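Per-record layout

source: Streptomyces olindensis
name: Acetate--CoA ligase family protein
length: 741
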Amino acid sequence: MLGSTHGTLTTDSRRARAIACGERSGPTVHGRPAQVGDLDVSGRPLHADVPDLDRFFRPHSVAVIGASDTEGRPRTGITRQLADWAERVGARLYPVHPSRPAVFGIPCVPSVADLPEQVDLAVVLVGDPLPVVEELADAKARFAVVFASGFAETGPEGEAAQRRLAAAVERSGLRLLGPNTNLNAFERFRDDLQGPAIALITQSGHQGRPVFALQELGIRLSHWAPTGNEADLETADFLSYFAERPEVGAIACYLEGLKDGRSFLLAADRAARRGVPVVAVKVGRTETGARTAASHTGKLTGADAVVDAAFRQFGVIRVDGLDELQDTAALLARARPPRADGVVVYSISGGTGAHVADLATEAGLRLPVLSEARQARLHQWIPGYLNVANPVDNGGHPVGDERGRKIIDAILDDPEVGVLICPITGPFPPLSDRLVRDLVDAAERTDKLVCVVWGSPVGTEPAYREVLLGSSRVATFRTVGNCLTAVRAHLAHHRFTTAYRSPFDEAPRTPSPSYRKAQALLRPGQQLSEHAAKQLLRAYGIRVPREQLVTSAAAAVRAAGLVGYPVVMKASGARIAHKTELGLVKIGLTSASQVRDAYRELTDIARYEDVPLDGVLVCQMVEQGVETVVGVSHDDLFGPTVTVGLGGVLVEVLRDTAVGIPPFGEEQARDMLAGLRGRALLDGVRGRPPADLDALVEVVLRVQRMALELGDRLAELDINPLMVLPQGQGAVALDALAVCG
């Protein structure tokens, strides 16, 4: 579990692109387009299967097992809500109870076996749901909901009970929501609201309430899936289903854990293909990985860092608070695609404008300086001493007459402007009322985004409640922070989906020749020596230095002559993880005598430390370049992950790394590098030449191919340092550690 109270079980060089894609082009399998059911090289699905949940949300028939109408009983309230919901959706209701003739005037059915038809949805209210689920399976029910708690959220015994329940469901073909879920799917949704809707997925019903309440602000909600413990139906199922619904404009999620990371990414990929934004709160940011990894890579990658990487790679927008979830999902559901990414801050106060402009710039938004011609036009209505370059300060008075609307229109007519943000720090009638009406009227005639921050702590003013909230074209916020978060997400989402190419379409389908070479080098359950690990890298075409493995001082001298001075000498053995700390590395050796002395010293240290050796490596010395680290580790949820960052002996101190979830393509690999804090070192600083970024990307893609093909047989890989040479000269793996699974 990932700390869940709901018990969710966790378990542009063409050459570089060709490597990642297995020398194939286009999303095809055996000469035909890729489709649901196709597998990648590791035997995993390439596309999400979309469950048919229509009869869950709009059933024709509903059975309530354990129905009650005895006042004061919890089941009675649930039965009443289900009866009301069934009437609203036009479903036939069958209360099931062995001793009651009727519930709320509706005749009871004594048992599941006596149901007069195959029901679409059965709601189980009894304490022990397993026998009932088995009966429902025999009755060919399509869906069941189990509210009962006491399963995986309670510990080992509950986990065992949940496994039995999941096994019964899997045998039956029945689909089940829960256990430990609630009535949120059967809430009363407003049907008088228009426009694209938000679909909601939560693992805690209470945490979905703020999003559900958006209906009171005029924002449509279409579905709510409370997934509970996810013994069967999981977040990924609802995500795939909602991504296909024409009425859904955005999907909002509150996640405590994920049942299966791969399934989630396949579902997120489906949403990205269709351009449906997914906004998620994922708790557990402070969780640290529980692995005891031998390599740097494993230590560098905590579980939450992998979640962050997975979300970024597939366009899931991660926010921290429920208020951000509300506002970001609402904007993304309703806003039209941006015409430009320029943002203008417009206010009646220079202080307000400057403050918000600072915050917007800090948030990564682009605030273009308006052209001199545009500024001159604005100064027709705004005094010349006020700033109109961006932010635009009108000084207050122009909003009280016809000038106010002309200013707004002039800003929105600028082709560089895609978003207008107007912060109103507090109501100041009648000027604020006139300003709000002008903003709403202008929003109705433009295809650009108009955002208003209504800063009043009261929120009962007619200008807010009636005019702003009455508009479907103005995005209204109560805080500047939430506004900027939502606008940034809106612009980023459309940039992402415009350029999106599904990595699953490019995933290799068949093992490479490298895979067959690598199989002979693996030693199940063992750590490989540096020499053996480098052979594994060679198998995948990753360059290593000239080197020889020797077992005598005389052989070391001969090897040094062949490799070429200066040389590096290192002890090589399967039980050595970090040689530098043990003094098992000697660098800059320039003579035969130094080589002989180094050989003796290395072997003496190994004997003293009781470290068995398979020999001593005499290596070419490579000095000019940027030290990086590239590695593979395994995440409990997402499987193999690839890490790249700045390397060397300080890698664990700097912790400047980025993570990718295979499969990914060249652009994602370059995005990983772009996110490094020390990226400038690769671009060349203080007179140093730029590093060979293409070569680094190529290594990252080759390593991900290795991770995909070898799977669990490669538990960890750590190439550190990978020396990235000056541009056009390649990259060399100077050291490597590999642990076989």
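summary: Confidence is low (pLDDT under 50) at residues 1-34, 287-302. The first strand starts at residue 28 and ends at 29.
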